[in-house]
Amino acid sequence: MPPLSDQPPAAPASPRPVTVEERLFSLVLALIATEIGLTKAEILATVQGYRQRYSASESNTSLERQFERDKDDIRELGIPLEMIEAPDDPGSNHHLRYRIPKGLYDLPADVTFSPDELMLLKLAATVWREGSLSAESRRALTKLNSLGIDSRDPILGYAPTLRAREASFEPLSKAMDKNQVVSFPYLKPGERASQRRRVAPRAIVLHDGRWHLFATDQALAAPRTFLLSRIVGPVLPVPGTPVVPADAATGGNPGQKALDGLEALWTAQTATLSVLPDSDASVRLGKRNTDSEPSGAPRSVITLRYTDLNILADELAGYGPEVRVLTPALLQSAVRRRLLGVAQAHGGPHE
């Protein structure tokens, strides 16, 4: 007879969590493998990633919502998802069957990937593991895994990670997909308090190393461009608000329209700087010099183009005495205010 123990029996080990990639991959495999299709109940009860949370006797509402989102993800991957109605019960969602026709899902016969090529594609997708592009990364990896080709995966253990640091990127992207109005607090340079802006997002573009939102301002019914780095709070949907239609200025390709406007602004605005030779400022700013014949004087004169005066002023103030702004006067004043603010904060002169 085994010795008695006062210790309670050990709790059963919790099941290993199933990743998003694994759940989508399992769903794709299950829907390809069936010829007659699977009902929603059959999917939730049997497919890896659902069955661990499925209950035959209790509500599975949250699990059903997860399946609806996964269906959208599968379609975004370009996978043809078929829905088959029961002949004796047309229109019934309860008996609706889902399947992926294998012939439509297979790659064309003339498109193939070697293990090395597949490894590089996976590496590119794995780089975007965090930040706003993580959802796209997961979907790309699911698609690549489903090809059934072995790749040299060990290199993925050394993959770098890129982050889109602005937290507003993902909710703004989702709002664009849904044609939805959102609001957010926006802090303009020189202001102490943010202002709430209500906009219909049209495009998010990268220009001069920074993310910009091109949107229709609902109050002005006009296009405006916002720096994502100046959105200082959560992006919230505004339910029940009709979207102001895009006017002629935002018609066509709004992303290209935004880039054209930013590029025109960058081309039109120039700053002339006097930079101390062999300094950190000389090395860094000299790479962006648009003057083909820099001066040979003790302080080299360089010319920069810029999109946002305040962002450039922040950068130049960081170089301290290594940089002196010659033109324009507004930039000169902006840099001076920043340097005086630093001096005052450290007990320096106030003039």
Automatic annotation (TrEMBL):
WCX domain: from which residue to which, for each copy? 278-340
Domain named WYL: residues: 169-232
Mind telling me which InterPro entries this protein's record contains? CBASS_pafABC_assoc_protein, WCX_dom, WYL_dom
Q: Which PANTHER family match?
A: PROTEIN PAFB (PTHR34580:SF3), PTHR34580
Q: Under what name is this protein listed?
A: WYL domain-containing protein
Which organism encodes this protein? Answer: Cryobacterium psychrophilum
